[in-house]
Design brief:
The protein is of the alpha+beta class. 18% of the residues lie in helices and 25% in strands. The strands form two sheets. Strands 1, 2, 3, 4, 5, 6, 9, 11 and 12 form a nine-stranded antiparallel β-sheet that branches. Helix 2 crosses helix 6. The structure holds fe (ii) ion. Fe (ii) ion (FE2) is lined by residues 180, 185, 187, 252.
């Protein structure tokens, strides 16, 4: 089994401490094709990668500035695209691009194939060192990992695209918040990472994630899944609780968000990192897959030497 130090971090300025932690996570991720990392463990890792404690704290409130989602009434959202360049060892914010997912990528919902325009992530998130460390964490973890490739992607590319969503799911008297209304699905990418930021008034039985073997039928509601096809369970409850999934090898579903106090709304704030190689012509996202940098809100992170 490959380890990070063998092919990724040799000669780089990461402490043996963080390399050991990353290798531990990676070994489990490679073995099971998904991995849940408790927030306390993630906090230690991203601190080693440069996250400032006050920025971890800021992540808890960054979702207060989200906007209404283009297609889902129970959700507020922003997104941004980042190019991981493994040759240059940089992560760069790309120019704005709309977003789409299709049934061909195991995503069946009323807005499948619709081209959606999300508000962009601003500096309050992208300049946050904890957020940047999460980007670096995923980039380091997936580098060189052998997975089932997704079709119509440029598998020779040394650049990967991570589309990051900052999402708030809301449940109130007239709305039931569904973190994954589409039921069993994949995200149309190669690696998905989901990180919990905060919640308010959310009951303990809310937003349980199931990770499914690929034999589980796409589009089945989370209430109807076949337990013999469940590869694992996870529930995000604490800041930085993180779930990694090889998106070409495991499907997933998430249960609804419920209130504790029925008189108040419940909220659940997350970061979702959808990461894959660039698309080839013919892929539904190819017209929206520019690797050009963002002009108005530029960001380039150099790693890990700069940390
Ligand atoms: Fe998903």
């Amino acid at each position: 089994m490959n380890t990070l130090s063998e092919f990724s971090l040799a000669g780089r300025h990461l402490s043996s401490n963080v390399v050991e932690k990353l290798n531990h996570v990676r070994a489990d991720y490679q073995l099971n094709r998904f991995k849940f990392i408790p927030g306390s463990e993630m906090a230690a890792i991203i601190t080693d990668l440069g996250a400032q404690p006050e920025d971890v704290e800021s992540l808890k409130t960054v979702s207060d500035s989200l906007f209404g989602d283009p297609t889902l009434p129970f959700r507020q959202s922003r997104n941004g695209r980042f190019v991981i360049d493994y040759s240059e060892k940089t992560i760069t914010r790309t120019c704005f691009q709309p977003f789409t997912l299709s049934a061909g990528e195991d995503f069946v919902r009323h807005d499948s194939e619709k081209v959606r325009y999300f508000r962009g992530i601003q500096d309050d998130l992208q300049a946050n060192t904890a957020f940047q460390a999460l980007l670096i964490f995923q980039a380091l973890l997936i580098e060189g990992m052998k997975i089932q490739p997704r079709r119509a992607l440029d598998h020779e590319s040394s650049r990967w695209v991570s589309t990051v969503f900052n999402l708030r799911t809301i449940t109130q008297a007239d709305l039931v918040g569904e973190p994954a209304m589409e039921g069993v699905h994949t995200d149309g990418v190669e690696h998905t990472m989901t990180t919990f930021l905060n919640s308010t008034n959310m009951s303990d039985d809310s937003a349980r994630s199931e990770v499914h073997f690929m034999e589980q039928k796409t589009g089945i509601p989370w209430t109807e899944t076949d337990q013999s096809l469940v590869a694992g369970y996870a529930q995000h409850k604490h800041v930085l609780d993180t779930l990694l999934i090889v998106d070409t090898e495991r499907k997933h579903s998430v249960s609804s968000v419920h209130q504790v106090d029925q008189a108040k709304r419940a909220t659940r704030d997350m970061l979702i990192f959808f990461t894959r190689r660039p698309t080839l012509p013919g892929h539904i996202s190819h017209p929206y897959d520019s690797l050009e940098p963002h002009q108005e809100i530029p960001l380039t992170i150099r790693y890990p030497e700069a940390l």
